[in-house]
């Protein structure tokens, strides 16, 4: 049976974003992809001092009860305690990951919105976090989707596909999952 990735929209997520992912992920991971109905905005994870949502808690709530590989998608600014913010987070042992959309938009930085750039960033972040889920670590090849992104410039520079080494590892990991 073909592996399936479950897309879990958390709160209001534009249908465009879900469609981009549902279109891109199956070819990258050779999997099926299904989208659930949107989950309520996880207000209990809101930190009113930081004005952000806590990534782990959002992910835990969103993926509770999921038996298949799940990618939560939140149009919410997420953080983990040691970092100012995160673009995404993966919990590989749990086969689940989350991506945060707001900081992937040009408009977040006061620039004119660019849907093409936004779309590419969304796909790259999703593939990167799912790569972690499937056992990959960060890659030294700055064009590889598993390269660590320190900034959006890094994200924009890399591709949404895996380098040869990561691809090879991914295929091994995929069989093991
Ligand atoms: Zn990473
Ligand atoms: Zn790589």
Structure commentary:
By secondary structure, the chain is of the alpha/beta class. The chain has a single domain (about 5-175), classed as Collagenase (Catalytic Domain) (3-Layer(aba) Sandwich), CATH 3.40.390. It has five helices and eight strands; from the N terminus they run βαβββαββββααα. The strands form two sheets. The protein has a five-stranded mixed sheet, sandwiched between helices. It has a three-stranded mixed sheet with strand order 3-4-6. A hairpin with a 4-residue loop joins strand 3 and strand 4 (about 50-55).
Shape: globular
Estimate the helix proportion, in percent.
25-40%
List each distinct ligand once. Answer: zinc ion
Distance between the termini: 13 Å
SSE order: EHEEEHEEEEHHH
Tally of extended strands?
Answer: 8
Strand content: 15-25%
Radius of gyration: 15 Å
Structurally, how many domains make up the residues?
Answer: 1
In short:
The chain has helices at residues 15-29, 55-63, 115-133, 152-157, 164-176; strands spanning 4-10, 32-35, 46-47, 52-54, 69-74, 78-79, 88-91, 96-100.
Task: Describe how the helices and strands are arranged.
Elements: E1 4-10, H1 15-29, E2 32-35, E3 46-47, E4 52-54, H2 55-63, E5 69-74, E6 78-79, E7 88-91, E8 96-100, H3 115-133, H4 152-157, H5 164-176
Parallel strand pairs: 1-2, 1-5, 4-6, 5-8
Antiparallel strand pairs: 3-4, 7-8
The protein binds zinc ion (2 copies).
One zinc ion (ZN) binds next to helix 3.
